[in-house]
Write a structure and sequence with these properties.
2 copies of one chain form a homodimer. Chain A contains 13 helices and 11 strands. With 358 residues, chain A is α/β, with parallel strands linked by helices. The longest helix of chain A has 32 residues.
């Protein structure tokens, strides 16, 4: 299998290392603008060979990963699609998805976003196991090829990651709420504390662990985050506005001295956090589920999205078209007894419109 | 020295243990409503003896620590002052200070707030070294006795803590900004994420480390935090309102797609956090500084507050009244070359009004 990695930094380099470690007969071709950095990536074992010619990098590729700052990804993906073979799946690793998915009509494109490794940049920190256990969002569009989606899914599972299908808009709203908004609040918190402590003269602030934790991500990599803020501006703005509304409610309870409201609000937050964090610890025995489906575009996306919404972790999947190509079956492997039951219920309720009686 | 500890939980128990470990000839008397819990505290070595009679607990005490939830402290301090000897210093450990300081006119009272150990409650988790290296705010009022303040300061230094003098109102605003506000934002973040994920069906949220860090304190102990929110309501409300204003600015930059403004804001946050956290790492060789002062109420508070504002860490202090009691000297030990220089500058600029030519 030939893997093309466009941009060989922390993520691209780790994809290269993981491919060479976990995929059978993998050949990894790296693209970059600096021949020197490509050499370094090769020395570190992240790529088999490097090239500064993008067409050469994608020629003959089976899977192409566009890795780079959110701001350059649309151009990179467009060029990759222009040069890649007709049966190559092209994906990206950007942390916002709606704009790139909307801009790309090609059936070979599936948006992606691995939740891994923002702390350190550079191919020097790349690791074959960077994605072990990590969530890897995939945002297939209706037009996305099911066969190519399946191939990408398999590769990501081989990396040790957990692929989660989600539509691009929900992804961006979700990330706005659980990642971008915390960054905004961290930035605001430190700026506000710094201003206040500035007013109080040169006093050393004795900040406690709660402040350190709450502001750990303040002022994260500016190039990367400016791209994210711009690419996901509307979803983030909406989340921030909702936060403003919630904060105003808190102000009102404080000014009213409403102890009961404050207690209930605090209890609710504890319960919310417990549920949010516990939900992530699902697992258990793996079940196999075979789903007969009509062979038309959009089926894989429809199924994967429905299961993603139901919180089902698809450990692995396989597509098997019938000989006449008019119908087929998707085999899904699901982790956990409860998840498998939920998956069955989801599948039973799905209306494929043109499903044959079986 | 006789130490009275009113309320023997995590903080009170640790004060007892630290007193018995680090103070010479310490006798620790514990007060509580439950004889059983007092027995437990005695078994653990946190107190020498316990009583359910508050007057008995404070009789003959040199230093009295009122330890309990913010809501009960005003009553506890009032009773302690009513029963304690004329030369006993009474302090509390509550995390808001303005209301209790304003309510207490007694010269024997000095408000206090050790920044330590909110994670686990109960005397079972008490440790003699709980305060090692911890900031311990002291909020002397003008009426506070300098001699009694000095005694309390020494005891806290003996515990291994760093006493920092600060006026009660500034303390509450500071804590609102660096502790209470992060708790408010954490609560709002989890509630907002939970609502959004609820709308998206039963989807498992794949929350990242930034969300975990930012919400670590969400839904902290409700009894304790409701007390804090009520006691410091106005300062917290003002900080939250400032946050709302700052968030609105971010929304405007997002909607305008103003990449330059977002970049600058993010860079500023990184710089702010670096400064805030580095400021806490001061240290160095200890210098001695002798300050001649008139012997009148308020001098110690004035000096300690001025040095606190200048970010000077007073490692130890001693008061030496002149034989005729009309004047005296305060000896200060300051950690760090820079801090000692700042302390000298502060002292030179202080106007004691009635200072004698020396």
């Amino acid at each position: 299998v030939r893997i093309s990695v466009l941009g060989v930094g922390l993520i691209g380099g780790s994809i290269g290392l993981a491919s060479r470690e976990w995929l059978e007969d993998a050949e990894v071709v790296g693209f970059g603008r600096s021949a020197e950095r490509l050499d370094r990536a090769r020395e570190l074992g992240a790529i088999d060979r490097g090239t500064t010619d993008l067409s050469e990098a994608v020629a003959g590729a089976d899977v192409c990963f566009a890795c780079g700052p959110v701001g350059v990804l649309p151009g990179l993906v467009e060029q990759a699609l222009a040069g890649a073979p007709a049966d190559c799946v092209v994906t990206d690793v950007g942390s916002t998805k709606r704009s790139i998915v909307e801009a790309t009509a090609d059936e070979r494109f599936v948006g992606g976003h691995p939740i891994a490794g923002a702390e350190t940049a550079g191919v020097e920190h790349a690791r074959a196991d960077l994605f072990q256990g990590a969530t890897w969002y995939l945002t297939p569009a209706e037009r996305s090829s099911g066969l190519l989606y399946e191939r990408l899914h398999r590769v990501i599972v081989a990396f040790g990651a957990r692929p989660v299908a989600i539509d691009a808009e929900t992804h961006d709203r979700l990330l706005a709420a659980v990642s971008h908004l915390p960054h905004v609040l961290a930035n605001v918190l430190v700026a506000q504390a710094a201003t206040m402590l500035g007013e109080e003269g040169e006093a050393l602030p004795r900040v406690g662990p709660s402040f350190r934790d709450a502001t750990r991500v303040a002022g994260a990599n500016t190039d990367m985050w400016t791209d994210i803020y711009v690419a996901n501006a509307e979803a983030i703005a909406e989340e921030v506005e909702e936060t403003i509304g919630r904060l105003q409610t808190v102000v009102n309870a404080l000014r009213a001295g409403d102890a009961a409201a404050l207690s209930g609000w605090n209890d609710g937050a504890r319960e919310d956090r417990r549920r949010l964090l516990e939900a992530d610890l699902a697992g258990g025995p793996v079940h196999e589920l075979v789903v007969p489906v009509p062979n038309r575009p959009g089926i894989v996306a429809q199924l994967a999205l429905a299961l993603g919404r139901a919180g089902v972790n698809i450990v692995d999947m396989a597509l098997a078209p019938a000989p006449d190509m008019s119908s087929g079956a998707i085999t899904l492997w699901i982790a956990g007894d409860d998840a498998a039951e939920r998956a069955r219920a989801v599948v039973d309720q799905l209306d494929f419109g043109d499903r044959q009686p079986s």
